Amino acid sequence: MDDSLYDEFGNYLGPDLPESDEEEEVPQPMQEVEDNYEDGETEETGVPGMELMEIDDIPQTQVVLHEDKKYYPSAEEVYGPEVETLVQEEDTQPLSEPIIQPIKIKKFQIQEKGLPETRFKKEFMVDMMNFPELVRNIAIIGHLHHGKTSFVDMLVNETHSSVAWDVDKQERYTDTHTLERDRGVSIKSMPMTLVLQDTRPKSYLFNILDTPGHVDFVDEVTAALRLSDGAVIIVDAVEGVMANTERVIKH
């Protein structure tokens, strides 16, 4: 190609081309191409896999309205005719209601009426049960008639403002059985839960087990010690250490 025959923009400036060259460069009319597509004529080549693809629809340039256009398949085409689909244009759930409901922990308490008033709230005692580090399990052990049940009565008096302490009268709150009341001897281990404070003062939840002092009910003492973290040994200052006192110490 001679560069002198073209300007800087690539336009041809040379002499006129012969008519034979112009005829060779004339493209095939568009109408003939469309006729070939309509007649289904295809050019077969000798190379396998290089056959011309047949076009079903000729691209058209007519104007299609926006509401007539189809961008996505319908729900029936996606899920099938047997699936019922619903489309809601307005949200029926109010904005004040969360989409994912939070987990609500409900607390139920059964309270008896007519109970004596305590120096602590019942709700406070129940909530302390959820903190094991603030719970103490102790057993009251000792010889017969050394004052184990009376010691528990003193703790009840300290935690109940409406209970009047009478030195000459034993309330025996942990002796609930009829035989225990009649004979004045504890037969079974009886638990009692109280909220007590130390010298700081720091509140703790005490699960107190009042055990029998008779030698025939030492099995109740053994079971109570298995459930307890510690023990309080009650010794009568007059009688001193007795046989059953030594027995429970060996436990």
UniProtKB/TrEMBL annotation:
Pfam hit, one: GTP_EFTU
Region of interest called Disordered, as start-end residue ranges on this chain: 1-44
Skewed-composition ranges (Acidic residues): 18-44
Any single Gene Ontology cellular-component annotation: U4/U6 x U5 tri-snRNP complex
Alphabetical list of Gene3D superfamilies matching this protein: P-loop containing nucleotide triphosphate hydrolases (3.40.50.300)
Single GO term (MF): U5 snRNA binding
Xref: InterPro entries: EFTUD2_N, P-loop_NTPase, Small_GTP-bd, T_Tr_GTP-bd_dom
GO BP: any one term: mRNA splicing, via spliceosome
Occurrences of domain Tr-type G (ranges): 133-251
UniProt name for this protein: 16619_t:CDS:1
Originating organism: Acaulospora morrowiae
